[in-house]
Amino acid sequence: xxxxxxxxxxxxxxxxxxxxxxxxxxxxxxxxxxxxxxxxxxxxxxxxxxxxxxxxxxxxxxxxxxxxxxxxxxxxxxxxxxxxxxxxxxxxxxxxxxxxxxxxxxxxxxxxxxxxxxxxxxxxxxxxxxxxxxxxxxxxxxxxxxxxxxxxxxxxxxxxxxxxxxxxx
Length: 169
Ligand code: FES
Description:
- The protein is of the alpha+beta class and about 170 residues long.
- The protein has helices at about 10-15, 15-25, 40-50, 55-65, 70-80, 100, 105-115, 160-165, and strands at about 90-95, 120-125, 130-135, 145-150, 150-155.
- Helix 2 runs antiparallel to helix 3 (about 40-50).
- It binds FE2/S2 (inorganic) cluster.
């Protein structure tokens, strides 16, 4: 769509394959509404960039979608599903909002922080996990819950967490 000229890391991220996927999303919306493809485009670029988004990549996407860079930054910083600094191989999001709180997420947080040896916003020394605290993920009926990469895990117990994390290669 856009005649974007990119160099270096941006060019390798904005390769032909990703451009085609972004263009598919742009085509789903009326002409002139390419910014509607912002969220799926951020997902594509984040996945291609080892799980996080640099300012450089977000700025390049803003040009590609013909929207102000600040608007892309606003989207990327609003949603906890986007990360703006390097992350581990696996992202663990723990919900600490009200339903999860009422159902014992404090014990869950304590267990997982001790097990991994990291606090919220940190990555394990081996680079395997990044742990994040997030707001409600819409799975309140399964509280307490966590998200590991794209999968939800509900009705957590310490034993269940051990089983889930120990099962990740
Ligand atoms: S409060 Fe935790 S998923 Fe809704």
